[in-house]
Amino acid sequence: MCGRFASFTDAQDLADELAVAEIAEDARLLGPRWNVAPTDPVRIVVERPRREPLPDGGTTAGEITRSLQVARWGLVPSWAKDPGIGPRMINARRETLLDKSAFARPLAVRRCLVPADGYYEWRKLEVPSATRKTPKQAYWIHPADGGVAAFAGLYEFWRDRSRADDDPDRWLVSTTVITTAASDGLERIHDRMPVALPRAAWDAWLDPSVGAQDANALLEDASAPMSTYPVGARVGNVRFDDAGLVAPDPDPQDPDLVLL
Q: Phi and psi at residue 221, in whole multiples of 5°?
């Protein structure tokens, strides 16, 4: 799974990297994060029709535009009674996307990229422990080329029926990160990993004219190369959120380090 990641690249730099035409104000103002956790606001890249103003004050759909938006991490399906389901849907398994009602619809019409500088995973260690708790080593996993990872994601709109029609907070936008079986050495750390789409797949993944079956096919064996090194245990506590979390662990517990 992917339960923690970091997103500290500036919004404009992300826009340049991902060929984004528009940056929403809340996405521009979202500060750097080194310890993003479930239900936190995150940036997502989407392609949707631009809303064009009408003389009567309404709007109409304009041209398809790639934009940087903000969503809450943890997908809330449109049919959910309340947003409490979100923390259980921070990830969507690639193998069952077409079978799960919460994911099949957004796979067809609401796909996104979740930009990240990297993510964290914990490796269970088979070493003696003075407690019953299995010791774990935290790892920082990041793009091998030093750039930004573009995780394949889905997003959804949920309407809060308790709010008035003119309440700007009546809609919740949420997102999930698609995961797949770990490979390329990452399986030594954890059996799952987020799908980091290679640059060549970005356009097709975001293209609203691409259907669910073709979009699902883009996820097969799609993984940008990653590098790893061990980091300290502080990342396990959401209260810590600083650049020191991605510093190499000077005294790692893992006797068989996974260095990719």
A: 55, 25
Q: Domain 5-246's class?
A: alpha beta
* 189, two tokens: 């750390």
CB 255 within 8 A of CB 127: yes
- Please name the residue that has the structure tokens 């809060």: 160
Q: By three-state DSSP, how is residue 12 classified?
A: helix
Q: Which two tokens stand for residue 55?
A: 């003389």
How many CB atoms are closer than 10 A to CB 41?
16
| Bigger pLDDT: 167 vs 44 | 44
As a whole number, mean pLDDT of residues 99-122 equals 97
How many angstroms separate the CA atoms of 38 and 181, rounded? 21
- Residues 14-25 pLDDT 10s: 999 999 999 999
Kindly list the distances between the CA atom of residue 208 and the CA atoms of 110, 155, 204, in Å, as whole numbers in the listed order: 8, 13, 8
How far apart (Å, rounded) are the C-alpha atoms in residues 175 and 158?
Answer: 11
Instruction: Determine the residue type at 219.
Output: L
Burial classification of residue 84, based on how many CB atoms lie within 10 Å of its CB (0-12 exposed, 13-18 middle, 19 or more buried): exposed
Give 257's DSSP letter: -
E strand segments, the chain: 5-7, 22-23, 33-36, 41-53, 59-73, 91-93, 111-116, 118-124, 136-143, 149-159, 171-181, 192-194, 226-231
Which are the contacts of 220, defined by CB distance < 8 A and separation ≥ 6? none
CA separation for the pair 55, 256 (Å, rounded): 66
pTM, rounded to two decimals? 0.93
d(CA 170, CA 234): 36
